[in-house]
Amino acid sequence: MTIHNAGVGLVILLIRKNQVKPVLAQRVFTAVVLLGVFGLITVFSTPFIFALVLAFLVLLGGVEWTHFIGLKTLYSRIGYLLSLVVLMVGLIYLLGINPSATELESRWVISVLLLGSFFWLLAILLIRGYPGNKKDWADEPHIALMGVFVLIPTWVGIVQLKYLDNSGMLFLALLGLVSVSDIGAYFTGKAWGKSKLAPLVSPNKSWAGFWGGMVCCVALCVIMVVGVNRFDASISVAQSLLIIVGSGVVFLSSVIGDLFESMMKRNRQLKDSGTLLPGHGGILDRIDSMTAAAPISVLLLVFILAELWNR
Predict the structure, then answer these.
(1) Which of 176, 181, 226, 242 is deepest in the core (most CB within 10 A)?
(2) Reduced to 3 states, what is the DSSP secondary structure of residue 205?
(3) Contact 297, 303 (CB under 8 A)
(4) Global pTM?
(5) Per-residue DSSP letter, 103
(6) What is the pLDDT of residue 308?
(7) Calpha distance 39→48 (Å, rounded)
(8) Burial of 217 by CB count in 10 Å (0-12 exposed, 13-18 middle, 19+ buried)?
(9) How far, in whole angstroms, is CA 187 from its chain's centroid?
(10) Nearest CA among 87, 21, 2, 35 for reference residue 291
């Protein structure tokens, strides 16, 4: 679920009831602050600073992942976070992230994104088999390893977007697609959601919401492509269609990420991943869709751009 839902929900509530519930007002305030601060960081920071800020946010997500693992002691949680730090420092070196770099080492980017994408394919099987398959994966070592495959490729994927486009527009476009998908799914699900998508994992999600989210995501991508084509005539019809089809991949991956985090919370009987964001829960509650969408869609984008540059 994304931070944009609260704003749209507030508008609907004001229209219908002409009042604002305290919890919803808190959600909206937090959402506006998050969007403003992170939007400014995305647009105005250098890729190096952006990578470091995002690394810090990912580590906050790592703190919440220790709840999914079931780590109880402070030392065990610190140990897990240190393992993430070591991995990220190593990747900073391998990817070539430094203040003077203008691009990342593509072979390492692709390697990490491929590993992340492969994990999300496996995640589909875990989601489909839940809760009957818990005995095969619901232990500390497996869930700890899952956290690495969820958090690290997300960081690499988003950082790659910033290095590909220093303006930050590529990442904001991905964020827009994921957010609109979630908003479309929420309202169509509320209106027509009778047939459940994954009742044992997330009872509130429906097939109506699934198709509504898909339509909204593709529609926004069409609008984006039309807008780009007005300023860049070099994008052909075939390439535009490839990008639009890619938006479907963004949507599907965002659904997988959302369902997977719901499964992790249900496995530990948690309502939220954390309490860091007032009215929203934790960091992972806000980036669940992005954790799958980032590595999969950025990997697809890298190949699309390679195809464009070779023409």
Answers:
(1) 181
(2) strand
(3) no
(4) 0.88
(5) S
(6) 53
(7) 16
(8) buried
(9) 20
(10) 2
Q: Which two tokens stand for residue 240?
A: 């535009």
| Pick from 137, 163, 207, 142: nearest CA to 47 | 163
Alpha helices in the chain (DSSP H): 5-17, 22-44, 47-69, 74-95, 106-129, 134-137, 140-164, 169-192, 207-231, 237-267, 283-309
Distance, in Å, from the CA atom of 157 to the CA atom of 134, rounded to the nearest integer, reads 29
Please give the DSSP secondary-structure letter assigned to residue 281. Answer: B
CA 256/CA 261 separation, integer angstroms: 9
Per-residue pLDDT of 268-292, as tens digits, reads 999 888 877 765 678 998 889 999 9
In this prediction, residue 31 carries a pLDDT of 64
Place of tokens 């906050």: 60
CA angle at 269 for the pair 35 and 118, rounded to the nearest 5°: 65
Distances in Å between the alpha carbon of 275 and those of 81, 282, 283, 288?
Answer: 18, 5, 8, 15
Residue 246 and residue 297 in contact, taking contact as beta carbons nearer than 8 Å: yes
Q: Which residue ranges make up each domain of the chain?
A: 5-309
User: Could you identify the residue written with the tokens 């309202």?
Assistant: 187
Q: Are 48 and 101 in contact (CB under 8 A)?
A: yes
CB 202 within 8 A of CB 256: no
The three-state secondary structure class of 139 is coil
Cβ contacts of 226-229, under 8 Å, gap ≥ 24 = none
Could you report the per-residue pLDDT of 34-75, keeping only the tens digit for each?
Answer: 777 878 899 999 999 999 999 999 999 999 999 999 999 999
CB 203 within 8 A of CB 236: no
pLDDT tens digits for range 212-242: 999 999 999 999 988 888 876 667 787 788 8
DSSP designation for 102: S
Percentage of the chain surpassing pLDDT 90?
66
- Distance in angstroms (rounded) separating the CA atoms of residues 112 and 119: 11
